[in-house]
Amino acid sequence: MTVGEELGVSQTREDIPLKNGRKATRPYFCNEECFSGSKYMNIAFGTLTFIITLALLIQIYYGDYQVVPHGSVATDSLECSEIGTYVLKEGGNSIDAVIASALCLAVSTPHLTGLDAEGHLLIYNHKAKQPPTVIDFSYPKVLPQTLPRLVFGLAYVHQQYGSLAWKDLVLPASELARKGYVVPKTLVEAITLSKSEDLYGHLEAGQLKTHDDLAKTLDHIASMSENELLDSLKDLREPLTSEATKVKFGNFDVFLPNDNTSAALLAFALKELDSQNNSKLISTKEENIYRLAEITKNIFTTNFSEPLHEGTVSNIAVIDKDENYVSMVTGMYNYFGSGDITSHGYVLDVKSKDKPCSRIALIMKDGNSICGRRIVFGASNFAVALQIISSLLIVKDNATESIEAARFHILPDGTLGIEGTHFPAFNEEVMKYLETLISKPVLLQEPYGSSNIIEKFKDDLSSHSDSRGGGIASRF
Questions:
Q1: Which of 61, 135, 350, 369 is most buried as measured by Cβ atoms within 10 A of its Cβ?
Q2: CA 229/CA 123 separation, integer angstroms
Q3: DSSP letter string over 20-47?
Q4: Predicted local confidence at residue 67, as pLDDT
Q5: Does 447 sit behind a cis peptide bond, omega within 30 degrees of 0 on the bond before it?
Q6: DSSP 8-state symbol, 341
Q7: Is residue 230 in some structural domain?
Q8: pLDDT tens column, 269-284
Q9: What's the number of domains the chain is made of?
Q10: Residue 223: which CATH number?
């Protein structure tokens, strides 16, 4: 039984097709914005009455029936995606879903994130049409001593944007820690790669793992009153909140964190790629990959004034029924952070500002149409983000194809890394070209950093969790 089934949530997942049948369309945001006029009112009212009646009859016959999802959550864990959609189902907004999902991931993917992890969010309301807000909780100098770093960041965004009670967002993660979660393959791979067998003992993919001390810690965090949370936040010495930077790419607005070295490199790369695309230099998928590899390699060697560190990455993408979009990236300096577990059951991260992390949260939208494509995702570094954006907007692949496509990485020494065991892989023609940039690209070991995505066009919503992270997106 999945988390969603246990909580009684009626929803769909990306691994379960939607039921066949006639669309039960509601007057969603884009419909209201794009159509008006009294001459349509009589027809619209009659049509709407017929559709609602039909939908009710179908629901009575087939059960809880959804064709157009109200919202979606995409994470590296099915349990956490389902907890996020449960929060949306209960009337929470995107921030509420992100908080519950992030705490869940701190339980079920301890190799990637934890209560002491860093990260940032982009928060955007498509109805307001204002640039997204960036909230960054990466740096230790802004943290009070009373809360771990991730909890501090989530408490801050809850105080600013949350709608449900704090306790209701923390307890699902506490219950998961107490009752146990299914160990993902990526966790086992990370333990082997980082030689961290002493942290959690010998684990096998598919077994049930519990964290009793962590469950007690989450129970305590859930029991904190609003006043206690506010007292924890009052020591904040500098703003966490800023306005996102907008970069034009073709007809699209790409929103990025404004104080982020990796985002600055991505902005530079997007401008170069846009120029080459407008000059008709890119006509095939293979040529697109060549250009991307050249651009990222050149940027790394000529514009890399500040070293970046690519730590772990866990990406949460959420869209709710009220057009609130959130992309969150979080992670630690290494797999399992410092490798030290506190008596409270969570791993401490490495607190270092010497090398800013490369992970990026992104939100994109069609700059010419309010009902055009809107896309929420995150990436482990600017090279991965550039490849996904190019696949979505130049090659015209769909969201799933763009996320699952083969990727190259620029390693800290400037060499190219290839995900050697991911499928689909680069074809022979592409590999021969990449070898002209560097004689022998490095074959990277699993697990690979994942990117999770939600895309909306008009009122149609699709979502996908990267197979690299082992998660499954959830919709309701």
A1: 135
A2: 21
A3: PS-------HHHHHH---GGGHHHHHHH
A4: 47
A5: yes
A6: B
A7: yes
A8: 999 898 887 766 666 7
A9: 1
A10: 3.60.20.40
Question: Cα dihedral sign for 403, 404, 405, 409?
Answer: positive
State the pTM of this model. 0.87
Task: Spell out, as residue ranges, where the chain has pLDDT lower than 70.
Answer: 1-11, 15-68, 140-146, 235-239, 279-283, 303-307, 352-354, 439
* CA 45 distance to own-chain centroid: 38
Does residue 259 lie in a domain region? Answer: no
Range of the domain at 335: 72-245+301-475
- In-domain check, residue 421: yes
Does 103 map to a domain? yes
Rounded Cα–Cα distance for residues 209 and 178 (Å): 9
First-residue to last-residue Cα distance in the chain? 17
Amino acid making up residue 471: G
CB-CB neighbours of 63 under 10 Å: 9
424 preceded by a cis bond (ω within 30 of 0): yes
- For the CA atoms of 252, 129, 324, 35, the dihedral, rounded to the nearest 10 degrees, stands at -90
